[in-house]
Sequence to fold (347 residues):
Amino acid sequence: MKGILTTYGAYLPLTSHTPTLTLGEGDTPLVAAPVLSRETCADVFLKLEGCNPTGSFKDRGMVVAVAKAVEEGARAVICASTGNTAASAAAYAARAGLTCAVVIPSGKIALGKLSQAIIHHARVLPIEGNFDQALKLVCELAEQGSITLVNSVNPYRIEGQKTGAFEIVDELGDAPDILALPVGNAGNITAYWRGFGEYQRAGKATRRPKMFGFQAAGAAPIVRGAPVESPQTVATAIRIGNPASWRGAVAARDESGGLIDAVTDDEILAAYHFLAEREGVFCEPASAAGVAGILKLARAARLPHGARIVCILTGNGLKDPDNAIAQAEMPRALPATMEALTGILDL
Ligand code: F0G
Fold:
């Protein structure tokens, strides 16, 4: 694997002094979703960003942010995170030989993500507060100058994340009609919109998609038009009440003729199970928000017939094993006999 600095270097703010850092990020699968397509009367593809090295889309932006931090002589990086940014920062910092600190909302991080930050030896700093408070704190800390901030307020993050749009166009031959994705801190929707625009200007695409962003109903500040003081959702990755890239998300929505809508936790979990049971794809709950959104629009007859839609599945289901088994009854152990198995299986 080449990684995005090599593959898309011409579109990134690299210099001859930027180290060619990579863990093999990017080049993620774009797979057709036949059952979802039937269900929505559309032509739906899933972009499996959970196949990135640390299991989420964050690696695209993080590799650029950490490479630039090294280039600029940084010794340490810091971020606030609902989990995936922390996991990615921890891994790329380890790879680059930098110290990493992550500030996270205590008790609201999926287990897989926490295990990643710990195993990569980041300084894990849980706070009694939410992501928005954590982000405010790390921004203030970074302003003091001794540590580099690698949240998406760092412009290199958005630059790297836009490469997801390039890959979609490279694979499909042009932009899709609609791009559907979850919105939390709103960096990703901002980045994809920039990527599609740059590729169109470069003559690689003839058009740009409508951007369809979906927030969790209990954490939907952009939909409501005001920050949410105490955001709540089962999709902890997008449990955010005051997104840093709010303006970028609104611009992506308005310039593309798209929308930003809310989906309930029930709708998110239904889409999460649908993807796993009917398409064989295991993503984390937040990632299912985009799919929940298009299912909801299709049921309301608000999705154009036959539209080509790409849903960004932002993170791997294994990030959040607790959620996968939360509603399920754990099967009891059986005697190790044929009778016990055939008695149960009813084939
Ligand atoms: N999906 C997943 C799995 C995420 O981890 C995030 C954000 C999003 C969607 C939303 O993307 O913030 O660019 O709008 N996670 C951040 C984190 C906040 O700290 O890992 P966004």
User: Anything to note?
Assistant: The pocket of F0G is lined by residues 56, 58, 81-85, 182-188, 237-238, 284, 286-287, 314-315 (CB under 6 Å). The chain has a mean pLDDT of 97.
